[in-house]
């Protein structure tokens, strides 16, 4: 709860499409923590208006800018949320990091659409120790996922050997100017959507990726859509295998034409002495040991009493903001929980998977990270 002596942290949101407005609502539910959204920037007038309507309903006056540079130069904010289309992240982040005024930043995933751009952002940010940059890989905060992470970190599964993540869901939503229908804009489905899951794999196994093998295609969705004479090229299903430097393996099973599923995400983590599972949105966690067998499997409903707004991601965006606010105010960890390195590696795995599909072979992370001919 904010006190009379708490300084209000002023936020600006760059990009107020669907996710930008989602951030606006989450921040409103954090107003008792001493936050306020004071400015937005977006060239798209309908998005501007929808954000203004929301802010009006919250009794939050907003300064509106058509471009992010004008917002930066205004000096109105302390913290910026970047929720623009993926292909714009790089230039906007570089403008923020290189600006004379220090702004803390929460950037939506993926960090950038290419490994090269991610690396340039990382290098630029290293020269600005006065700012914090957190990447919006908020799936790790979903209550069932967070509980499974806690179980893994507690050692009750032993040394993690295998992580399997199944996402069976609906197709990509319609976005402003249909930007998410093309790889050149999004980075590709395995970057745009699946960086979340590659981040979780790395978190569960406690290691870095070595090489990736993937098979995928565009088989069902968007094939009858045409934009400016072009048919979308984003894949709608894939299998991805990731090998890590400690010998562990991860596998992603992605299908984006599977609306008839009870759970959108099913996560399985198997160690040498036990197994844990998380189900979203059921918010159920199951775990057991080899020794106890099937009859010893425990099941629980995962909740987090701190969540005041579930939103689009089962409360994880709310917790993400709560966590970042604590980092900004210097409570607990010195740096953001999800840093630029996490953002970079999650993109690198996705890029390697996309290249693997194109080339029909294993692709090493070394190839992708070092910009070798792939």
Question: Could you list some keywords that capture this structure?
Answer:
Gfo-Idh-MocA_inositol_DH; six-stranded parallel β-sheet; 15 strands; nucleotide binding; globular; Gfo/Idh/MocA-like_OxRdtase_N; 374 residues; Inositol 2-dehydrogenase; alpha/beta; nine-stranded mixed β-sheet; NAD(P)-bd_dom_sf; 12 helices
Give a written overview of the molecule:
The structure is a single chain. This protein is α/β, with parallel strands linked by helices. It has helices at 18-28, 45-57, 68-74, 89-97, 115-126, 143-153, 183-186, 189-192, 195-205, 316-328, 340-359, 365-369, and strands at 9-14, 35-41, 63-65, 79-82, 104-108, 133-136, 160-168, 209-217, 237-244, 249-255, 265-271, 274-280, 284-289, 298-301, 363-364. The protein has a 9-stranded mixed sheet. Strands 3-2-1-4-5-6 form a 6-stranded parallel sheet, with helices on both faces. β13 (284-289) and β14 (298-301) form a beta hairpin. The longest helix is centred in the last third of the chain and has 20 residues, at 340-359.
Globally, the shape reads: globular
Estimated structural class = alpha/beta
Total helical elements: 12
Strand content: 15-25%
List the helices and strands and how they pair.
Elements lengths: L8 E6 L3 H11 L6 E7 L3 H13 L5 E3 L2 H7 L4 E4 L6 H9 L6 E5 L6 H12 L6 E4 L6 H11 L6 E9 L14 H4 L2 H4 L2 H11 L3 E9 L19 E8 L4 E7 L9 E7 L2 E7 L3 E6 L8 E4 L14 H13 L11 H20 L3 E2 H5 L5
Parallel strand pairs: 1-2, 1-4, 2-3, 4-5, 5-6, 7-10
Antiparallel strand pairs: 7-11, 8-9, 8-15, 9-10, 11-12, 12-13, 13-14
Helix pairs in contact: 1-2, 4-5, 5-11, 9-11
């Amino acid at each position: 709860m904010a006190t009379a002596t708490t300084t209000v942290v002023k936020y600006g949101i760059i990009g107020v499409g669907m996710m930008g407005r989602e951030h606006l609502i989450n921040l409103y539910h954090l107003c008792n923590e001493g936050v306020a959204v004071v400015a937005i920037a977006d060239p798209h007038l309908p998005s501007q208006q929808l954000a203004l309507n929301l802010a009006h309903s919250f009794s939050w006056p907003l300064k509106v800018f058509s471009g992010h540079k004008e917002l930066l130069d205004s000096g109105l904010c302390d913290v910026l949320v970047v929720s623009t289309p993926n292909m714009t992240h790089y230039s906007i982040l570089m403008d923020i990091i290189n600006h004379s005024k220090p702004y803390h930043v929460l950037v939506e995933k993926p960090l950038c659409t290419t490994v090269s751009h991610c690396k340039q952002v990382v290098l630029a940010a290293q020269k600005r120790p006065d700012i914090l940059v957190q990447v919006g890989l908020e799936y790790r905060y979903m209550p069932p996922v967070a509980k499974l992470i806690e179980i893994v970190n507690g050692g009750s599964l032993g040394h993690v050997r295998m992580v399997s993540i199944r996402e069976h869901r609906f197709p990509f939503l319609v976005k402003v100017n249909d930007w998410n229908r093309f790889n050149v804009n999004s980075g590709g489905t395995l970057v745009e959507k699946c960086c979340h899951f590659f981040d979780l794999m790395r978190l569960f196994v406690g290691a870095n990726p070595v090489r990736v093998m993937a098979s995928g295609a565009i088989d069902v969705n968007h094939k009858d859509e045409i934009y400016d004479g072009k048919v979308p090229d984003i894949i709608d299903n894939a299998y991805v295998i990731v090998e890590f430097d400690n010998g562990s393996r991860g596998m992603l099973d992605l299908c984006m034409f599977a609306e008839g599923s009870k759970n959108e995400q099913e996560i399985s983590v198997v160690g040498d002495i036990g197994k844990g599972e998380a189900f979203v949105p059921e918010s159920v966690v199951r775990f057991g040991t080899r020794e106890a067998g099937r009859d010893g499997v425990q099941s629980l409903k995962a909740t987090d009493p701190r969540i005041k707004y579930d939103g689009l991601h089962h409360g994880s965006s709310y917790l993400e903001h709560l966590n970042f606010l604590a980092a900004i105010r210097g409570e607990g960890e010195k740096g953001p929980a999800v840093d630029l390195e996490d953002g970079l590696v999650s993109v690198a795995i996705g890029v390697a998977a996309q290249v693997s599909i194109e080339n029909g072979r294993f692709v090493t992370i070394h190839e992708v990270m070092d910009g070798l001919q792939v």
